[in-house]
Design goal:
Length: about 425
């Protein structure tokens, strides 16, 4: 109503631009408005990476809404470490844990050791109430320690960069699995998805000075936690390279052709586990390599299912290497998701020379976080009546302006007619 009233005044007082264009406001976190000179809010989370410990300080006004969270609703890491004891009068909640505690994961890169964990806010009703007033949130946290030069604490602020694990071998074979943008040009900046989207996954092997190798995705499984042995689980790739997720109502498939022999790309239609409130999944894949000059076979292949032709087809190699996908038996028992194994390549002499090289590895990417579209639809449906009311009020205001203008014109014309009639009456 205030907006309609302001528009109505602007129409009546057309020249008053100061009234029609007030001072701009900035919408701050929490939904409140402040002038442009508002002071920026304090960082809600502070991370301190020490020599052997990780210290996380969380503001109780975590969401900037002035609705304080409770310390009992906060945990750190997959093992759910609890915060330090604090009083209700304190404005912050603190965690202090060892770098290897709470289920924290470690990743080795060319120039750094990266410790990854997450802060979980899981609000629960207070007392006999059945409602909560804050959101559930999982915030990734990383600490990076340089591998060269002097080691100094460097705190990495929480980001939405996707978590991934990388496995190294003694001959610098590096297996990796990454979430990519839709055009495959770069790593995906956020791990968030809506149901109906497709996750673009890229598996790679960095060989260094090794002989040319060809990478295969032998087996993939999705779980609600980073533990590939967790339940429930959903098999995406099975039988030594058959992308079985594409057999259902999904369009999951390997990309043809592959960009390089040491890289394999595939898409998976995203999903979440029924009756699981976590709305996130982790994907663990068993990757392996063969010599690039070796032809693909039933044990080393990348096969997708084509619904139009109702048949399997390979990324490379003869079509008959995918026929075993229909039978679910591709030479030897399929890779057991709970018992990763290691093999060697080449002849027996070369295998003895490289007996410590890991040519198979399990790598994990996640969490893939799913955003619920239902809330957006409800918001749109809720906003529709307000928009309709606004249009009605605007139309009413314009009608009132037109009515007042017409009344003023009629009054002016009436006065002119009366003035013109007076001389005739005087002459009579």
């Amino acid at each position: 109503m205030e907006l309609t009233y302001g528009l109505f005044i602007c129409l009546l007082l057309w020249g008053s631009t100061e009234l029609c264009y007030p001072q701009p406001l900035r919408l701050l976190q929490g939904g409140t408005s402040r002038p442009e000179t508002a002071v920026q809010a304090v960082q809600p989370i502070v991370v301190e990476c020490r020599e052997a410990t990780l210290v996380v300080t969380v503001s109780k006004d975590l969401f900037g809404t002035r609705k304080l969270i409770r310390a009992v609703d906060l945990t750190l890491g997959p093992e759910g470490c609890e915060p330090l004891v604090s009083t209700d009068t304190e404005d912050v909640v603190r965690f202090e844990v060892g770098l290897h505690e709470c289920g924290n994961s470690m990743q080795v890169t060319d120039d750094a050791l990266v410790y990854s964990t997450f802060l979980l806010h899981d609000p629960r009703p207070v007392g006999n109430l059945s409602i909560v007033r804050t959101n559930r949130a999982e915030i990734p946290i990383e600490c990076r320690y340089p591998r060269r030069g002097n080691v100094s604490s460097q705190a990495i602020l929480p980001t939405w960069l996707p978590f991934r694990t990388t496995v190294f071998s003694e001959e610098k074979l590096t297996f990796s699995l990454r979430l990519m943008e839709e055009n495959w040009s770069a790593e995906k900046r956020t791990p968030t998805f809506h149901l109906g989207d497709a996750a673009h996954l890229q598996a790679e092997i960095h060989t260094g000075s090794h002989v040319p190798l060809r990478l295969f995705v032998d087996h993939c499984v999705a779980t609600p936690t980073p533990d590939q042995n967790a339940s429930p689980y959903h098999t995406i790739v099975d039988f030594h390279g058959c992308l079985v997720d594409g057999l259902t109502d999904a369009s999951s498939a390997f990309q043809v052709p592959r960009p390089r022999p040491d890289t394999l790309q595939f898409t998976v239609d995203v999903f979440h586990f029924a009756n699981d409130s976590r709305n996130m999944i982790y994907i663990t894949c068993h990757l392996k390599v063969t010599l690039a000059e070796q032809d693909p076979d039933e044990l080393n292949k990348a096969c997708s299912f084509s619904k139009p032709s109702n048949s399997w087809f390979p990324v490379e190699g003869p079509a008959d290497i995918c026929q075993c996908c229909n039978k679910g038996d591709c030479g030897t028992p399929s890779h057991a998701r709970r018992q990763p194994h290691v093999v060697s390549l080449g002849s027996s002499s070369s295998a003895r020379n490289r007996r410590h090289v890991t040519e198979e590895a399990d790598v994990t990417v996640g969490p893939l976080i799913f955003l619920d579209r239902t809330g957006d639809h409800e918001m749109e449906q809720w906003a529709l009546p307000a928009d309709t009311s606004l249009l009605l009020l605007l139309g009413t205001g314009l009608a009132v302006v037109a009515f007042l203008t017409l009344t003023a014109v009629i009054l002016v014309l009436t006065r002119r007619c009366r003035t013109a009639s007076h001389p005739v009456s005087a002459s009579q």
